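Two entries, shown back to back:
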Amino acid sequence: MRFQPLVVGRPSKAVPVIERPQRRPRKAVVLRLGSISLFFVAAILVSAAIGQVRLGPKGPVPAAPKTSGDSASPGQGQSSPSGLRDTNPKSGGVRLGPKGPYTPAPRETTQAQATASPGSVKPPAPPLDPNKPETFQITITPAAEPELPLQYALLPKYEDVQPGNSVPFYYRAVLKWKDRPKEGTRPFHDNYDRWMDASPSTFPAREVREFLKRYRGLFAELQTAAHREQTEWSWRLKDLKGTDAIAFLLPELQESRQLGRLLYLKARLEIAERRYDDAIKTLQIGYKLCRDVAEPPTLINDLVGIAVASMMTAQVREIIGSPNSPNLYWALSKLPRPFIDMEPALRYEVSIPMKLFPAMKDAETAEHSPEEWSRLLAQAFAFALESSGASRMRGNRMLQARLGIAGLAMKGYPRAKRDLVAWGFDPKRVDAMPVGQVIAIHQARIYRYMYQEMMKWSNLPYHQALVGLRKSERKLKDEGYLAPAGTGREIIPLAALLLPAVWQAQKASARLDSRITGLQVLEAIRMYAAGHNGKLPDSLADIRDVPVPVNPVTGQPYPYHFAADKAVLEIPAAPGDPARVGWRFEITVRK
């Protein structure tokens, strides 16, 4: 039985919509393209990366305070094969394991481990101070630039790249991972944490080497993919219309994270065995994988690329702290900045509301029946409901949306009429418009204004863009645009929900660039020590052989000071991030 649908049209005595809820088959949870999943996946990934949330069995929850009993991730609270030690027990709350993000359980040191590696078991560390950066005690070997300065590269060299598309080879690598025997995956899932947390004296190199042998074919596919000129995924995202823009499945992304973890493990083995040239070649493949994964213009692609790039950057840090390792100053300088260009993804993401509500593009000239305006507005409102998390959208999705838009129309229609007249519309024309068209014109104008006001800063250097963004945020708040849902000038709060989330995701890119550049400064320090009989510089200004880059997040030099044969170099957290996502190096020179 159906009833007369509610029409958001000219004021009338329409009968409310009461549609029978339709049963829908349950679907597996997968990564989807579009803001309904992307903005929340982005927020969760960024929050997880900085330790603000952990991913529980029922979704994201606030991260619990860390204790000294927590197991640490590579370089966090444990010694690594390079001798680099993180004095913090854990600076997150979420680990990226072979099955995805999780929170590790406390682990105990066995008697066998304690006796097998004297001195490797450290006393319990004090609880992590969330107001302090992650600290690494690093003993460096002075290292001049290589005899051939560009001998090492962290992306494939031009002369090594061949014509062709890398994507088929990535798919072949994914198939080799997915087609592995089940008994072959158990060691990876069961031992990943132990392998990553092992100290230099307990790292099971032989065990890891035997495990990785079975993936020689997979690594060969990745090697070929990384040395192809083009990366063309052929997803044709611009052709997606309506809800297809948010329903596009992306199973490749989760698998690419698994490929990144295998490369991470391979590089760690090579560093532990002091095979630095091999490790650098592995990092080449890993960094190229990051950029190729981030090639499609979506935030989720960029965030997965940044997550894998962070793994590779952690291994660069391990190389720098390893005995007699080569200097990678020029290799780091050749990495692009920003390493992941998020501008295409930002443009695509903010276009999704226009795809879901195409009437916003030509609302001022379009001619639709009141019924059609009602349907279009309900579609846009359903998107806003799901994006905000205000409704789990159980039952009949469109029924909820139609009822919701009817309530918003009653509240927002008078304000929309006043604004249109204030913007120069003929009052008689406004009165003659269907209610839905008035709301659509009002929504389109406000969305475009808010989008352009905030996104105009996106191409500037991050430290300049951040200042401008805060200025625009204050302006939009003062003008009543950025406000809690239902209280701002937007009737359907699309921009108020989506635009802040976009900028939160961009922080992840800035954090990665800051760490890569900070490691370049660390290599400049090693270069100085090589030319001054192992002495560390009193200040970064003493380094004259090579330029010392500034922090791309702040536009200022990295904090550095030297006293009593020990130097401290800091890579501080970006403004607005908790201090614990920063890095702090306590540097001594290997004798």
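entry 2 starts here
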Amino acid sequence: MTTGSMRWRSPCPVSGMFQLTLVEHVRLSFGSALAAYEGHAEAAARLTRFTSYAKIALLSLSGITAGLGAIAVGNGYAWQLAFAILAAATFAACAAYVGFNQQPRIYGHRVSAARMWVVCEKYRALLAEMHDNAIDLPALQERRNALLHESASVLEDAAPDDRYTYQIAKEALAGFDVFSTSYQQNQ
């Protein structure tokens, strides 16, 4: 049973669980797209940092191994054994780096972030047109549906299957508040 103050929200005699306007739905969808963009951008940056640190560590380990090899040439068996162990460790670290090839995942997150940025810009344009009352209801519904399908295709096609993608999806679907984003705070 609806109260007098609730009648304007729903023509149904029983109040629904969700009372969401089209404008609110577009804003929430924009918030989810923005969260996905920020998540993929951060995942790409995080994986790139990890790859850079791994390269620095491998270069340092190789330098130490070369220095120990130079020392071991003129010294005894203990130095030569230490050099052999360090050379094996360097080889194992290089093999692990090559085996854990992060480049496809980095590229996947970068592509997803770039495509989601375009979707976010389209949402911003739609929100601006809604704010200016420059769009009619059927066009608004059509563009909203097109943006939802475009967001879904980005997340289906380009997102790599890793723990970062799971975390991005979890945060994007957890009721992201579009008004607390860094975009809104910088305006």
